[in-house]
Amino acid sequence: MEAVQKDHWYFVVLIFLPFLKVQQKEPVIVHLEEGMVLNCLCPWEGNLSMVSWTKIPDKYPVAVFHPEYGMAFSHHYRERIEFLRTTPLDGSISMRNVTHQDIGLYHCSVQTFPQGPWTRTIQVEDLGEPAHISCSQVIITNTELVAEQNNNLTINCNHQHNGTVYQAVLQKMPHGQLWDLIGVCKNVDGGLVGEDYSNRGQVICADSLDVTLHLTHVIQEDAGFYRCIFSTDVGEQTVTVLLTVLVPGGFSLSVYMMYVYTGTGAAVLVLIIVIVILAVRQR
Questions:
Q1: Best CA proximity match to 203, nearest among 253, 156, 147
Q2: CATH number, domain containing residue 212
Q3: Against a cut of 0.90, is the pTM above it?
Q4: Can you tell me the distance from the alpha carbon of 145 to that of 11, in angstroms, rounded to the nearest whole number?
Q5: Does 200 lie in the same domain as 94?
Q6: Which 8-state DSSP code applies to residue 89?
Q7: Among candidates 110, 120, 91, 109, which has minimal Cα distance to 26?
Q8: Beta bridge partners of 153
Q9: pLDDT for 162-177, tens place per residue?
Q10: Angle at the Cα of 196 (from 129 to 126), degrees rounded to 5?
């Protein structure tokens, strides 16, 4: 019966969390790292009613603590989050087995009696990554690729440094938008760890931390800039690739190349005929 009650109150919390109006505050910046702590310590005294954590802007439920019913976690954060509970009104949590999917904006709400709720917003960032490049800036590319729609394509990012590479981050910027994270390759405790966030292809990490992205049945949305940021022992190195996807029914690369080859062959044949005619006339 007690288990049913716990499931019931957690279900009710998950239903009503998306509709809660939260007070907007300047977020606190926290560095993405293993065992990171998201502090949420209510500064006043009182009785604790409940602590809830959500990830915004979608208000995705993360964790809930209730003095009577205990703790509950969403599936993605289960066995990864721990409530610290250093004081009666401490809603702080620690997070382990972190990945780049944990980057984002988190909202903590401490419900107290009699003074009511106290909230805090925390921005988790990977401070090792460079800032986003403005769309108005000129982007210098190392490689330009052209693909026909519905074909398969492989994008290779190979670092040109002979030293030690610790991490490689693969990002994509569609035309006129900001950089999105696609995948991460890194060395952790001497082992290779790969994180694939691509919904259009497959990210493959080599032992050297070179990165490969396989795209199948290329579509127009795959076009744009791709870049690999290699973190090495002598700094960062960036490799940028521009992918152009040809519009179906319009310009065709294979037809274009056929015309080029045909035209070149015809021109050479005409030139040979002209030379032969001139040689015969001179005799």
A1: 156
A2: 2.60.40.10
A3: no
A4: 49
A5: no
A6: T
A7: 120
A8: 215
A9: 778 888 889 898 776 7
A10: 20
